[in-house]
Amino acid sequence: MAPPRNNRLQGRIQMISIEGFRSLKEIHQLELPQLTVLIGANGAGKSTLIRFFEMLSWMLNSQNLQEFILRHGGGDDQFFMGARQTPRIRAEVRLETEAGFNDYRFELAHLSAGDNVMVMNEAYRYSDKKFPSLANWTTLAEVGREAALRTQDNPTAKTICALLRRCKTYQFHDTSINSDIRKRWDVSEYFHVRSDGGNLAAVLLDLHRNDFNRYQLIVRQIQRVLPSFGDFVLEEIAGKVELRWRSKYSDKFFGAHLTSDGSLRLFCLLTLLNLSPDRLPDVLFFDEPELGLHPHAITLVAEMLKRVAKSHQVFIATQSPYLVDCFALENIIIAKNKDGATSFEKLSTEQYQQWLDDDYLISDIWLKEGIGAGS
């Protein structure tokens, strides 16, 4: 169980440059809002940006980069069109805190032996917001299979590692018969919701015992979308708990195996987004959170995402017009793919405000030929 942190915004990812990571051939100084909604067609590269930050989290955490590489197809698959065409991945991340900017840059080279990668040319710096271009880089001489930044005894390095380690991706897609959410779970793993929602029952049991008002709020919000939902039935047996619930109209208990995929995803989203701020990571990534949800549920989830974004940075990758229309133009970044390379485009408020004034929706602008189609 992690210790609580206060609700003050610790920091955010302000800007990113990436060259050569998967389909991200060349992304130069992409500014990221506090609430970012990535939209685009299948294969446009929305999820690739999320995978990049997931890789950073592994690089700078106790989990290691090489394990991430092996889990995601091997080293060659991480380079744009393969390491033969793209010998280096280069990246630079700018993190903004109340005090100033913390920058981190690095390169990855492919190791053909074992199909792994080598981390090299790492550097970091801190700069005051008034004079960001005057700061000098601290270059790390180490070259190795893991990032050297995480071993540095320096306030700037520690700030960068702390924030990027706390980036977490949520993808509640796996609701198959063997998925974790359908299994009994250890009640001791209750503080954070896992990225796949597998420990949902343990989290709900803890809320029922120790934060009943918040638990009741989650139940009421589920009932707004599923009127027949009565309450969860959470019983600890031999240190484990199973996700079950009952209907308003029956005494029968329903296990996860009798619950629709969309309902299970809704349970996960509404529980996560109603947790107290100290139980959430600093930066949250959601990969297609609308999957399997009714439009009314999508609207509810979108409002909750906006609320969470007041204290935590939120990224959403989606291709749902319903979800897109819940957000403002300044939140939207469109992903396009041409000749295998992803590019990102912001919708200018000045350029498209007339469309909105004429009762167009944001999804109409996105889907308009020449804007959303990548032509």
Explain this structure to me?
The chain is of the alpha+beta class. It has two domains: 1-32 and 46-166, Rossmann fold (3-Layer(aba) Sandwich), CATH 3.40.50; 170-308, no CATH class. Helix content is 27%, strand content 26%. It contains ten helices and 17 strands. It has helices at residues 46-59, 65-71, 155-165, 200-210, 212-225, 261-273, 295-308, 321-324, 349-357, 362-367; strands spanning 12-19, 27-31, 35-39, 88-96, 100-111, 116-128, 138-139, 167-170, 185-186, 229-232, 240-241, 244-247, 253-255, 283-287, 313-318, 332-338, 341-346. The strands form four sheets. Strands 2-1-4-5-6-7 form a six-stranded antiparallel β-sheet, with helices on one face. A hairpin with a 7-residue loop joins strand 1 (12-19) and strand 2 (27-31). Helix 4 (200-210) crosses helix 5. Mean pLDDT is 90; it is low at 1-9 and 369-375.
Structural class: alpha+beta
* Helicity level: 25-40%
- Number of discrete helical segments: 10
* Unreliable parts: 1-9, 369-375
**Adjacency order of strands in the biggest sheet:** 2-1-4-5-6-7
**Residue-averaged pLDDT, rounded?**
90
**β-strand amount:** 25-35%
